[in-house]
Automatic annotation (TrEMBL):
Luciferase-like domain span: 11-307
Listed name of the protein: Luciferase family oxidoreductase, group 1
A single MF term (Gene Ontology): oxidoreductase activity, acting on paired donors, with incorporation or reduction of molecular oxygen
Family: To bacterial alkanal monooxygenase alpha and beta chains.
PANTHER family documented for this protein: LUCIFERASE-LIKE MONOOXYGENASE
Membrane-spanning intervals of the chain: none
Species this chain originates from: Micromonospora citrea
GO-annotated cellular components: cytosol
One Pfam family of this chain: Bac_luciferase
Top-level taxon in the UniProt lineage: Bacteria
Signal peptide: none
CDD domains: Flavin_utilizing_monoxygenases (cd00347)
Length: 340
């Protein structure tokens, strides 16, 4: 028998989606509106993700966006989901997030990913050298970044701000590599279930098996990111989710663009192969009425034993995005528990 039942914190991952016919400035203002509203609703943290060369995503500079969001909120934790370390010199990341932590102590998360978050041509344009762009260099660069905060290995460079600052460092992953590394380093781990659901359970098992207590964590702490679209009915949620499915197909075919409207997505002539691709990507996600989403998130918690869920909602209209988070906060969250 379980010893207790634990309430599960809910958090937000936002991509600052640029809707068809809108501007990047409008997308960023909508993300700011969403951050303020989710803070009011009691969500635990609000993360933005680094992407490049994608016309439909405006969150290309997480540190800059987080500074803006921090100035327009007061309590919610803010962070990167994530900063893609291969794109940047560790010193630059330490100074950026050291600055954020110095300005907003106790509120900043630094989620680190090892993928470039873009194509290789754009990644090369960011880094301007092939060095550091391979996965093999990631543990070394992560160690360098951590040392800029801790100063455990003194050297000729002091990150200011950076040295002595304490943003909460997370590792992000969609496979076993970062899961194992996060466990070995005793860091919290966030898994990208929203686009790699087939690897979720093996990665979480590897993280927990590999975990070693550290100065940051005594026990493993795993967060699972999941697509969530909640509306007043299952049919409405399905309609709202259409643009994200079309966006995924366009990205897969090398034709990324602004986020289509629900009407445009509904009119798109999906082939059977494309419908099957979308169906597979939606497995294990949460989409529907509050009752449906509560059941789906509950099943995800039961399978994963996640300590926290991070919801990402990619829909065309910001009002529908806000409404989804409102429904989950008011009609779903209270019924979410995990055995502990």
């Amino acid at each position: 028998m379980p010893c207790c039942v634990i309430d599960v914190p809910l958090s937000v991952l936002d991509l600052a989606p640029v809707a068809a016919g809108a501007t990047a400035g409008e997308a960023l203002r909508h993300t700011t509106e969403l951050a303020r509203r989710t803070e009011e609703l009691g969500y635990h943290r609000f993360w933005v993700a680094e992407h490049h060369n994608m016309p439909g995503i405006a969150s290309s500079a997480p540190a800059v966006l987080l500074a803006h969001l921090a100035a327009h909120t007061s309590t919610i934790r803010l962070g990167s989901g994530g900063v893609m370390l291969p794109n940047h010199a560790p010193l630059v990341v330490a100074e950026q997030f050291g600055t954020l932590d110095a300005l907003h102590p106790g509120r900043i998360d630094l989620g680190i990913g090892r993928a470039p978050g873009t194509d290789q041509v754009t990644a090369l344009a960011l880094r301007r050298t092939m060095e550091g762009l391979s996965a093999e260099g990631f543990p070394r660069e992560l160690a360098e970044l951590m040392n800029h905060f801790t100063g455990e290995r003194p050297g000729p460079i002091t990150a200011t701000p950076g040295r002595g600052q304490q943003p909460a460092v997370w590792l992000l992953g969609s496979s076993g590599f970062s899961a194992q590394l996060a466990g070995m380093l005793g860091l919290p781990f966030s898994f990208a279930h929203h686009f790699s659901s087939q690897h979720t359970l093996p990665a979480l098992a590897l993280y927990r098996q590999s975990f070693r207590p550290s100065r940051w964590l005594a026990e493993p702490y795993a967060m699972v990111a999941v697509n969530a679209v909640c509306a007043d009915s299952d049919e409405r949620a399905e309609w709202l989710a259409g643009p994200s499915a079309l966006s995924l197909l366009r990205l897969r075919s090398g034709r990324p663009g602004p986020l289509a409207s629900p009407d445009e997505a509904a009119a798109y002539p999906f082939t059977e192969v494309e419908r099957e691709f979308v169906r597979q990507r939606r497995e294990g996600q949460a989409m529907g009425s509050p009752e449906t989403v509560r059941r789906q998130l509950g099943e995800l918690l039961a399978r994963t034993g996640a300590d926290e869920l991070m919801l990402t909602t990619l829909v065309y209209d910001v009002a529908d995005r806000v409404r989804s988070y409102e429904l989950i906060a008011t009609k779903v969250a209270g019924g979410l528990r995990r055995d502990g």
